[in-house]
Amino acid sequence: MTVGPQSIVVVGGGHAGGAIALSLRENGATGDIVIVGEEPVAPYERPALSKEMLLAQVDAPVPLASPERWPERGIALRLATKVAAIDRTHRCVLLEDDSALPYDVLILATGGTARSISGSLEAGAFTLRTVADAESLRSRARISRSALILGGGLIGLEVAASLRQAGLEVDLVGADRQVAARSFPRVASDWIADAHVKAGVRLHLGSRVTALRRAEGGIEAQLANGQHLVSDLVILGLGIEPNSRLAADAGLPCNGGILVDEDYRTLGDRRIFAIGDIAERSAIDGVRPSRDESWSHARRSAAIAARAILALPPEPEEAPWFWTSQFGHMIQVAGTTDTRLTAVRRGPGVMLYLDGNRLAGIACLDTPRDFLAGRRAIASGQGVDVARAADPATDLRKCFFTHMAPHAGVMS
């Protein structure tokens, strides 16, 4: 007996694309599954690209599955292959080699392309999205003494930390006056900035690069404040542009990302889903649609969409969460950390965010036990005894009580 659609095509061979194929099989799907990916390697986890690979601690990132597992699970990989178009009328994807793959369900996990600024690539700047990018950057870093990072988001910060640990002099330019402002609350941003400054990274915040050019002695960057920085190596960490062209050309509603419902089904076609970085999802509590480029969201969106495709009941949704590891510190954030919430400090490494007496969010520095307890409390809608929770000597797990229906929370 066939369980689920007879043919499923996944466009995108990154973490989200690989995760949904595996999740479909784990949940009982029996139809054909094909992953079409532009990279020549099987799906893998990306966090190591900006950390362990740059530090030469590993030669390659962690694969999502062993090489033999894909054929064992009946998942076909079409690697180093580009999709040219989606034919919704005939329900097939057209490949650049003029062949076609029919589908009953199509999943778009196309991710994004690293942003650049005018003249940056011509000047020799690097971006970091793929294994090949990481290998090229690592090779260049080995013969460089200094690096300039453009962008104060998580990727830029992780690259800055790795290169500084590798012995390079590092400058980082960020447009915001706070690092990681999109992902983390102020307290977590301050933890990260403090670690960078102590390690010798020079932060230029509230500024931006207006021009890059090749110069004697390296690459020269001109900042908006008139300052000039010269370095051997420039890396762009300016975020991504969603790869939504295929969807837009096929007539699917897009707003930067691809607009999807709570099950990651596109708003324009019930047979097509979009997951991972590309998905622009309406939040459960009704706030405006937003994208989430985190590692955890790749996994979470794949799991939710897989169950929807197989018409399985949804599982309780976990609170969104982010993490980063820099200079030996682990910074983790979960739930909502909106400035309108009441912030309660729990020692030097934990901040709790309260909506009334319900825990809505948590930020942690090197306190994984508190983070796990907080994530569970957020997902289950538990309240918190504030006086006890503010004491870091008290086990945080013993500070919660159940008083309302589960609430998933949404990152601000």
UniProtKB/TrEMBL annotation:
Residues 7-300 form the FAD/NAD(P)-binding domain. Keywords: FAD, Flavoprotein, Oxidoreductase. GO terms for molecular function: oxidoreductase activity, acting on NAD(P)H. The keyword Oxidoreductase applies. This is Uncharacterized protein. Residues 321-399 form the Reductase C-terminal domain. Its cofactor is FAD. It holds the Pfam family Pyr_redox_2. GO terms for cellular component: cytoplasm.
